[in-house]
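Quick one: Major facilitator superfamily (MFS) profile domain-containing protein from Sutcliffiella cohnii, structure tokens please.
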Amino acid sequence: MFKQSIWREKNALLYFSGTILSKLGDKFYIIAIPWLIYELTESAASMGMMFLFQTLPFIFISPIAGVLADRLPRRTLLFVSALLQGTLVAIIPTLHMLQVLQIWHVYILGFFIACLGAVFSVVNSTVVPQLFRKEKLIKVNTAFQFIDTSSVLFGSMLAGILISKIGVYNVLLLDAISYIPIAISILFLTFLTKESPSIIKSNSWDQLREGANFLWKHTILGPFTLLVLIVNIANGALISMLVYFSREKLLLTSEEVGWVYAGAAVTQIVAIFLVNFLGNKTSHIRLMIINLLISAVGIITVAFSWSWYSLLVAVAIQSAPVIMFNVLFKTMRQRLVPSYIFGRVNGLIMMLGLGTLPLAGFLTGIIAEWIDIRIIFFTLGLLSLLVTLKFIGLRNLKEVEEEEKVTVVS
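--- reply ---
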């Protein structure tokens, strides 16, 4: 993975060293927030509502963040959004210490934390081609995914243990502190091109429409974005209700939930090494389709879980292929989209790709009050499987693969 290593570059050391600690804290948040919501309400509907507030910003903020990324210095956007996220996370345990914390506080703070997270995610993905040369992009993306997934392994184990030892509020405080290192590291990055790639004279709406037209007319990125939009219905249901399913149906402890996330992360790490190896030897598009099919099978398998270790296996089957797909899809758009429009296209892809997540999570929480969550997981997993199989039937993969080769931006 690290032959002709990118780790000897200053940008890589700064970019990834800050990311390691921030991602570790971020995984604390993933477990701590739904755990807190369950403690406050013990309601599937409330957890679905929180998931809605946390994911809606990725629909509405992502395209705006894309426009900002093409107009403003990207370093500034990354620095400010990171610091503000950490500040807002710290407010939750502060309100608890003041004995005034209510569920609506968590909803509102979670919404604004997600808004800033959407800005950071879009700009952070957009800036990668300005920090590293194109021939190193897949190595950079796999390294980033390796760090992210490794943080799931260690972050999930630590979160589960720490929640039981020091409480969920102190875990959130640690998460808030984790945003500081990445903010500092951003200040010392060296850009290979201008931080703000071009001076744009048109208004924001015209800029956004230009990005939408590029994506709509692109015969590779457009269809794949639509496919992700559909299959994420099942992913949104699983992500939003996994902690609820673990506690309500399997009666797992916080440590056991942590082991589920951590164990699945081990397989995700294997998937990262695998995609780095296969990505240079076979078709990215074919690998992406295979990964979506396997992931759908994993969601179906979750419905039949009976213990923490069976759930671990099922989540691993679902999540490892998603990791591989994300690396390949991110690399694909970094290679296919010109720099001057990349922020807008990237923001739109994130908006559309995540578009069904909040609604799916919210509705799953509501429906789970009436229908067994196992039935919901099975039905949505099967739907995802059938849609992906239908996609293969509609498009000739060999033609699409050849088209990708001739449309790569030099």
